[in-house]
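In the design runs reported in the main text, the only information available to the sequence generator was the tokenized backbone. The following block is the verbatim input for one such run; it is reproduced so that readers can re-run the procedure and compare outputs position by position.
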């Protein structure tokens, strides 16, 4: 399966906050970059943001990696973004599309892009948001636009038309890439590749499942499933 992942027309970014997992995955040829966020960090019990980031950067020296600002105030967001930007050349700074009051981050995005900060604009769900961001990014500065396809699907809406439209919008910027975010299942990786996204960010657990099951013969998987049910019934000691 590793060879098949290398052939996919989409770059896989590993998404997580487990330092050991990040270190191991960063060395894999099928992982082209890495991402994390404050929610993932909190889930694993992290409390020292900068120390964690610096430990990660000792392991991830060249592949792109995104760290997110966590302030809700735009001036403080900018201060944090500039600090994160200075950590290492392969760092992208994640900026949410709005603050928690729904105020647009576009003016801040424009300012940071003008200062040469590589940005990953996160939490976007609509082509309108993508259009607004593309209008202010700099063509000469690499950037990532993360559209949360999984969250779109959570609402009962097919994300594919939105992702395809967003891809066309992003084409206006030669150094910008569209990222399929919030992967929920292995299928999403292949959907991201098929619709033309440049990047798909995959949680560590789904990446493991992708390696184990991606492209597996369905008859073989059917037999594995039958055996699992049988062995579990025997192990449980069921009797009728």
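Verbatim output:
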């Amino acid at each position: 399966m590793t060879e098949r992942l290398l052939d996919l027309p989409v770059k896989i970014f590993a998404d997580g906050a487990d330092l050991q997992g990040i270190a191991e995955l960063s060395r894999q040829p099928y992982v082209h970059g890495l991402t994390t966020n404050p929610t993932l960090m909190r889930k694993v019990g992290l409390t020292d943001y900068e120390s964690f980031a610096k430990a990660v950067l000792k392991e991830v020296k060249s592949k792109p990696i995104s760290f997110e600002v966590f302030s809700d105030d735009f001036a403080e967001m900018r201060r944090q973004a500039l600090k994160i930007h200075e950590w290492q050349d392969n760092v992208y700074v994640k900026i949410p599309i709005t603050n928690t009051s729904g105020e647009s981050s576009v003016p801040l995005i424009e300012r940071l892009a003008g200062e040469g900060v590589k940005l990953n604009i996160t939490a976007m769900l609509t082509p309108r948001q993508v259009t607004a961001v593309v209008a202010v990014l700099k063509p000469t500065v690499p950037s990532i636009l993360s559209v949360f396809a999984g969250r779109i699907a959570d609402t009962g809406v097919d994300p594919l038309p939105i992702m395809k439209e967003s891809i066309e919008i992003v084409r206006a910027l030669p150094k910008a890439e569209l990222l399929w975010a919030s992967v929920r299942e292995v299928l999403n990786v292949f959907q991201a590749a098929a619709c033309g996204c440049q990047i798909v960010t995959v949680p560590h657990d789904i990446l493991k499942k992708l390696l184990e099951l991606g492209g597996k013969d369905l008859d073989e998987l059917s037999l594995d499933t039958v055996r699992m049910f049988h062995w579990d019934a025997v192990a449980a000691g069921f009797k009728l």
